[in-house]
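Here comes my example:
=====
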Amino acid sequence: MKYIRPIFLLLLVFHISGKPDNTGHKLQAVLWPMSPPGAIAQVDDAVYHFMQQYKVPGMSVAITRNGKLVYAKSYGKADIENNVPVSNASLFRIASVSKPITATAILKLAEAKKLNLDDKVFGEGALLGNKYGKQPYSAGIRQITVRHLLQHTAGGWPNNGADPMFSQPELNAAALISWTLDHVPLDTIPGTRYAYSNFGYCILGRVIEQVSGQPYAQYVKTAILQPSGGSTMQIGGNTLAERKPLEVKYYGQLGQDPYCCDVTRMDAHGGWIASATDLARWLVSIDGFDSKPDILSKASIAAMTTPSAANPNYALGWLVNAYHNWWHSGSLPGTASEVIRASNGFNWVMLCNTRTDKGFFNDLDALIWKAVSDKQTPWPAEDLF
């Protein structure tokens, strides 16, 4: 069928010894009820089945159609131990769904003539100049452009067991960039090979700061999120004690600690927390449909969704396919997320407070497609935003 899309396992899976989750609570399958009266069974039944199969404590889903919010519903528990349900206001870590948000910010700066996508990033006269690490830079590092970073074609620092973003935990983002430039050489010539890179998007966060003159999160909120109507999104904390108001609790599976990572340092590649509805607002604001004005120009949206020569399925912060669908997933211990923009006028957001393997992400990816492809699904006519 047209909507079936290639799936890429983009994100590092951690295997960390320890308790089933940070509290010692062992996740169990739950027998969920069928959809109550007034709900949309095509969505709810699929979500309940997915949650039962993969022992998901809580989920939040938002679906838009032609610019209107037609479904927003939350399921299960935000906090099992304190019996707190997930609500539509609940905030979840979105992990690598942060990347298309960062890409949106870069394109907004390009529209303002503050940078060009083909500007060099490092070296004399480049956007970040000689600010990080020791000089002289290698010839390869001096060739890296903003576009290379957006496309994951910078030539190195991939998301593998040596991913810089999960090393040197004592360093802040700036110090980590200097350390990586000094100690981790590129593997290939920039622009020639795709290698998914969290670190590349960390660099893009610093580009945004340098060019805008504002902290990364502040620029994104001012230029991207506020114009789209998103008011609660923010950079998350690292520990359970640093959980933000309305933020869910995360539950590890496979022996993973959901509070093992420096999420704050991940800002531009994996640090945002959001409600499903606020993410849907942002998605509607850049989806390229004519139903509502976008915050990016048509030319910027075309650039954002044009893949590189190195990978025909990855553009600027988005996975794309020949059917004009765009999407991105996110994954950290205790976290799973995905946003999808489909060519049939639907967008949707799915957020979970756990993750596992053996089909989890394939099934999450497929979860809403049947409902949005079924002409009998009873979507409301009014806008629920």
Q: What stands out?
A: The domain at 101-212 is CATH 3.40.710.10 (Beta-lactamase). Residues 1-24 have pLDDT under 50 and may be disordered.
